[in-house]
Each structure stands twice: as structure tokens, then as C-alpha cells.
Amino acid sequence: MQRRDFFKGMGVAAGSVAIYQNSFSIPAFASGPAQTIRFGMISDLHHLQFGREEVTRLSGFMDDVVKTNPDFIIQCGDFCRHTRSEGIMEQWNRFKGPKYHVLGNHDMDYCGKEAIMQFWGMPKRYYSFDQGGFHFVIMDRNFLKEDDGRLTHYDSSNWGKLPAPKRSFTDQEQLEWLRADLLQARFPVVVFMHQPVYLSDFPLEIGNADEILSIFDEVNFKATQNGSRAGSPAGSPAKVVAVFMGHDHDDRYGQRNGVHYFMVNSATYVYTKDGAYYYKDPLYAFVTLDTSGKMTIEGRSTIYTPAAPEQVVSRFPTRISDHQIKL
Ligand SMILES: [Fe+2]
Question: In the structure, how many helices (H) and strands (E) does the chain have?
């Protein structure tokens, strides 16, 4: 469903900000003095895709980052290459605070995971951290399922050799880590991944998304059952509250079993059956999370340049939508 239709259904004008009430909500948040954390997020920059440099585009995001000094910044995959990308890292490193990476499929088009992670300074392919009263989880969904069932790391464009249903898998070791990590989380959880587990128009290319969704369901069910988990601050049960995903180059929002899912639009272009249509200005967003249970997303919008055909303009928004959400 297009966001425009969604707003229409709610009787709220497109482009305005709506408060979504989560009827399945469980009390994920403790009372007491609220903490806030604000982060900058950019996805699918695609430096050097189709031979195009995207240093200037990233600098637009970084200007805003440097000016507004968020608590951290994160890129949600398909960022750049391990060579000819020094200008990208120069821009990225203008921010002196914490910077986080998510591996996207195109990041391994010309190398393996180790090379791009070393270039970025990314210590682990999946990991988690606590900041500002929230628990953040970063996943790596870049595995191929070979014909014999083995999972192989993406490396040097190998993902292109197998059809869509064989792509975007997550390894067992990581799934076990994810489950354990979430069950031990002391704060409400926000997850970042490149390939979507939900809301995708490409349901054949989501790998073992069902296993990840099952883990979210199990953890959130246990949080509901426990009511108050030992070790959590002020008796607040930890649960997965939001998931940010890239890859599809689209702007979408939806809820599944009480979790808020966001498809974060590309900073750079939409890809259609007729090829790529580029955005004039970079798309990115700033997200503010409040431990009283609020999330605000301030997204940027732009236009196509050169102008795109009407069917592209009407189907693929050149924006990341604003949201105000009760978690
Ligand atoms: Fe991607």
C-alpha cells in the first residue's frame, strides 16, 4: 500500500504527520525521566554504481550531520566500494561521533566482506550496542543458499549467479546470536538490516526472513509474558520496537505483530524495469527515540533529475516520509 493511500484511509492529509496508535502495544517503556537519542541514517548511496560518483551527495547528508550533531550516524548498506571510495570515507569521517555500518549486497560486488569491513573500519559483520536507553542491533543478511543447502558469504558479485530465492539469507550462527542477544537486551530494541524481512515488493528475494520474524515474535511474546524482565531498568520489558531496512529503494512503513517496520529510501535513485532514475538531492533521515515510548522520523524529500516519466513519479516517491510513532 502506498503511504498516500494509507493517509487517505485514516482521513489524514498526505504529507502531514499522523500519530499511529499501536493496539497490540505492551508496556515496553518505563515511567520516569525520559532520555532521548537522535541518529542520522542514510541508505543505498551506491557510490560508483553505473559509474556515478556520489561524494557530493554524501556531503549533503554530512553537512546536516555536522551542523546538528546527532548521537550517532548509520549507513544501511550499498554504500561504496573498497577502492576508489576515499572521498566517501573523507566525508563520512567528518563526523567525530559514533558511526555504524550495515553490510549491503553491493558492498561485496568487488571484494569479500573482510575487505569492505576493513575499509570502513567495521569490526564485526553483525553486532549490537546500547545507547541512550535503547538496544541497537545490526544484521548481516548477505548469504547465498547453494544448491546443496550450504550458505556462502557474498563475495565479488557471486550473489548474481543464483536466482532470487537463493539470495538474502542469514546464517545459523547469527540467528542463534540474534535470539540470545534479544533475550538478554535490557532496553527496547531497534534493528537495522539491508535486505528487508517485511514490506518488500520482492518476496522471492528475502531469504530466510521467516526465521528472523519468528525470533522477533518469540522475544516479544516472552517480553509480554515476563512483564518485567530481571535486569531491565525500572522494570521495563525489552522488546523489538522498530526495524529499519534498505535495499528496495522505496519509502514504506508498516506494522507487524506490534513492531514498526520502515523501508528506508535510497539516498540516490530508484531502480525500475527501465533502469535507474536519479534523485536531485540526497535522501536521508534523522530519527529521535524517546524512552517514554516515542519515535520521530524527519526525512528529506526531493525531485527526479532529469525528470522521470509520470508512472515512475507516481509509483516511487522521492522522499523519506516523516513519522511520529508511539512505540
Ligand atoms: Fe541492496
Answer: 7, 17
